[in-house]
Design goal:
By secondary structure, this protein is of the alpha/beta class. It folds into two domains: 71 residues, Orthogonal Bundle (Helix Hairpins); 72 residues, Roll (Chitinase A, domain 3), CATH 3.10.50. It is built from three helices and seven strands, in the order βααββββαββ. It has a five-stranded mixed β-sheet with strand order 5-4-3-7-6. Helix 1 packs antiparallel against helix 2. Pfam families: GreA_GreB, GreA_GreB_N. It comes from Candidatus Woesebacteria bacterium RBG_13_46_13. Keywords: DNA-binding, Elongation factor, Protein biosynthesis, Transcription, Transcription regulation. Belongs to the GreA/GreB family.
């Protein structure tokens, strides 16, 4: 049995949109490109055919992957301050005198550049279950960083 994947409602919608675009837009265009390349004759020296076939295999793999994730995805709702940090929460922390806001999301939604972190990340692991006022220490490439939780939404 497949492992349940916890995600926010927004994360599931994003994956559904990606799947829809791949299945209904990109895949038909790629299949048409492959058919046109196939009609060009000798397939052994047809680089467009080889490239289109390779792209289609990759695309089909991504489609399968998204379908599997969406089959096992469950929406997680933020429990609010009373329950502490968990998936779906927005956490305001202070580190080195600076305030940062992180969204705790499922692993499939993680995007550290946009401050969306999963509970599997080092900072996510340290924050999950903690409450406002708690302090956590996280090992980073620059050394240990101390975070103080200022707010949980």
């Amino acid at each position: 049995m497949a492992k349940q994947v916890q995600m926010t409602k927004e994360g599931i919608e994003t994956l559904r949109k990606e799947l829809d675009e791949l299945v209904n837009d990109k895949r038909p265009k790629l299949v048409e490109r492959l058919a046109n390349a196939r009609q060009q004759g000798d397939l052994t020296e047809n680089s467009d055919y080889a490239n289109a076939k390779e792209e289609l295999e990759f695309l089909d793999g991504r489609i399968d992957e998204l379908e599997d994730v969406l089959k096992t995805a469950t929406v997680v709702k933020a429990n609010g301050k009373a329950q502490g940090v968990d998936i779906g929460a927005r956490v305001t922390v202070k580190v080195n005198g600076d305030r940062h806001i992180f969204d705790i999301v499922g692993e499939w939604e993680a995007d550290p550049v946009n401050k969306k972190i999963s509970p599997e990340s080092p900072l996510g692991q340290a924050l999950v279950g903690k409450r406002v006022g708690d302090k956590v220490e996280v090992e980073a490439p620059a050394g240990k960083l101390k975070y103080e939780i200022l707010a949980i939404e």
